[in-house]
Please model this.
Amino acid sequence: MDTDSRSNSDSDSETHTDTGSRTGAWHLTHDLDDFLLRSGDFLRSRPALHTVPLTVTETLRTRGPHVYGDGAPEFGVLERDGEVRAAFFRTPPHWLNLTALTPGEADDLAATLAGLGRPLPGVSADRDTAAAFVTAWQRHTGATAVLRQRQRLYRLGTLTPPRPLPPGRPRIAVRADHALLVRWHDEFAEAVGAGTVRDSAEWADARIDSGGITFWETPDGAPVAMAGTGPRVAGQVRVASVYTPAHLRGRGYAGAVTAEVSRAALAAGADEVLLFTDLANPTSNGLYQRIGYRPVADFAVYDFARTGRG
Model:
């Protein structure tokens, strides 16, 4: 994948479209700066619920527009009566990501994107918004939808590290760990199967440069689990890429390393520490709650498949 740092004012990023509807006007653009100028205050007004667009757009801003794929990122802002009501982004070839929409707003957006001939592989949003958009997208395109994953967003309350901790210690990943990070990220992405996924080598480079991955390693220095944190944006930091190889699970490594990166984020000044879980995994959901994470909202990811219509 192209991971250059070209300016967001590239020629493929200057297209703007405004579409009126009964719920307001959607401003569509490929220009990240324009999107952030219009939506930044809105996104920062609810940083926990908007953690994904906040962190993805920060990565696009700092790592270049093609960090998630070769296609030009797509953005939209819904404005009504002079105020921003909602926003979306998509980094092709990945899913459409939506902030909260009413059923009417979801229908208007689906009609707008369908009318522009924009194919979508799927959608990710809070549970009710995702369901409303799926219904609307099916009506306007004839596509079928399959629920890929149910997720829960958690916010850290009082951090309670697991006791006893497993033998070993935390360690920040360094350049010599690059190959291991690439392999574990590939395994993690395959296991998770949903979300905005980056090229593993580029991801490893970025996390090493920022000190954004911590290992739990055994007393003899062998890494046995990892957890990462994204950039601090609007006061919030999101824990991500918590991974333990299958043959090492059940020994407390994931809890130990997650507690460590959570502690470090707080110590560095984060106002909120967040993470997503797969609701189909009761083990991880129980683990995060035991170390102090509390539910915020439920999300859903759907895949779309075309039928004969459209």
